[in-house]
Design a protein that fits this description.
284 residues; alpha/beta; 8-stranded mixed sheet; 12 helices; 8 strands; AB_hydrolase_fold; Epox_hydrolase-like; Pimeloyl-ACP methyl ester carboxylesterase
């Protein structure tokens, strides 16, 4: 099974939560699968994979509040604690008792918080280049946190230059113009610019510090996938995470950076399909 990036299924539904509008959709039929994106991404990264899996699974896509097609009101917090609560509420709204969860980047911490701190049950977990263990972030995060208001008021060309360079650094193979445009789109206008720096400013390692002591409590099948050339979250985290989650398995994907969905689409699609078939069929 291969994935080719295109516009994918549109998020045509909305869930109202604490004044926010969370955009989502579901496609296909079969066992439920939920795909969680990270930062500064959106469900666009997962859309082709969802389409490919829809022949065998019911796949749910969503954009976190403050991201993608979801609302970006400046008064709403977008930290990992808030996102974990939002995901737990969304799962309840969908009436999904124990879905299979696939998470990337921040989506890892969001999913783990929903599971470990908010009591949402999962059938399995697939963690792809996730934020889960300290340290994470970058000097850029620290700089933005100290001057978020200033960054939100940068002239548009300066903001777009910084944004493009930042996003490009997540790919090992390099982004095509179309891929770059899709990833930058939610953050280009004034509302998106402010939202982009707001989510970075609210990044805080305390939200992963809170879940690290509980990782050993995970008792569902867990698979960890990592790009070998991930410079945003180095692949040593995969081994550390596997050591913390008893019985978990690890696959390292060569020639892939943090944007593994774009760097190695065939390898990742094959890995995800193999994993889901295994956990839904009960194969050891």
């Amino acid at each position: 099974m291969a994935a080719v990036h295109d516009t994918g299924p549109q998020l045509d539904r909305r869930f109202a939560w604490r004044g926010r509008q969370i955009a989502w959709t579901s496609i296909g039929s079969g066992p439920p699968v939920v795909m969680c994106h990270g930062t500064p991404w959106s469900s666009w990264l997962w859309a082709p994979y969802a389409r490919a899996l829809a022949a065998e699974f019911t796949v749910h896509l969503w954009d976190m509040p403050g991201y993608g097609a979801s609302s970006k009101a400046p008064e709403h917090d977008v930290d990992l604690g808030t996102q974990g609560q939002a995901f737990a509420a969304l799962l309840e709204h969908w009436d999904l008792e124990a879905p299979h969860v696939i998470a990337h980047d921040y989506g890892g911490a969001v999913s783990l918080r929903a599971h470990l701190l908010h009591g949402r049950r999962f059938a399995s977990l697939c963690l792809v280049d996730v934020v889960a263990l300290r340290p994470w972030g970058s000097p850029f995060f620290t700089l933005v946190a100290e001057h978020a208001d200033t960054f939100s008021r940068l002239p548009a060309p300066v903001h777009l230059g910084a944004l493009e360079a930042y996003v490009a650094g997540a790919s090992h193979r390099g982004l095509s113009p179309a891929q770059s445009a899709a990833l930058l789109a939610p953050w280009r206008d004034p509302v998106g610019q402010a939202a982009f720096y707001r989510q970075i400013a609210q990044a805080d390692e305390r939200f992963t510090a809170e879940i690290e002591p509980h990782l050993g409590q995970i008792d569902v099948p867990t698979h960890i996938v990592w790009g070998e050339q991930d410079t945003w979250i180095p692949p040593d985290r995969a081994a550390r995470l596997a050591a913390a989650v008893a019985g978990s398995t690890v696959t390292l994907v060569p020639d892939a950076g943090h944007l593994i969905q774009l760097d190695a689409p065939v390898a990742l699609a094959t890995e995800l399909h193999r994993w889901l078939v295994r956990v839904t069929s009960g194969t050891p």
